[in-house]
Amino acid sequence: MKDITKRYSNGEMTVVWKPSMCIHSMNCFKGLGRVFDPKNRPWVTVDAATTKEIVDQIKKCPSGALSYEMEGQVVMENSDSEIIVEMAPNGPLMVYGDLAVKSVDGSIVRKNKATAFCRCGASSNKPFCDGSHKKADFQG
How would residue 75 be classed by pLDDT, with cut points 50, 70 and 90? Predict the structure, then answer.
């Protein structure tokens, strides 16, 4: 999958979106639909809410696909040293915390905040979830 990064700025902050990390939970759309609307182009309208509202919603992104920058600096939330693993109903295995994932070829992929691992077997981005569990009607 191509590693694309999109940026949307309101002059005070920039929303950073990495589509390859997105698991399409729709938390952004359901929580702040006037800013995050996949039917619009561009799909992020940063002038539709306050910076605080947008930042608060970005913090709820379960995959880490959404982040933000203030004055050109990427803002990373302080992570706890504890790793939490959660099975999302009919969805991915969510792992919260900083991770280093070692592939079978020995390469390392670093993940922070939250990582969604495929449980349904249908992802084209294994071992990571790409939202295919919805099309596959995964139950589990």
Answer: low
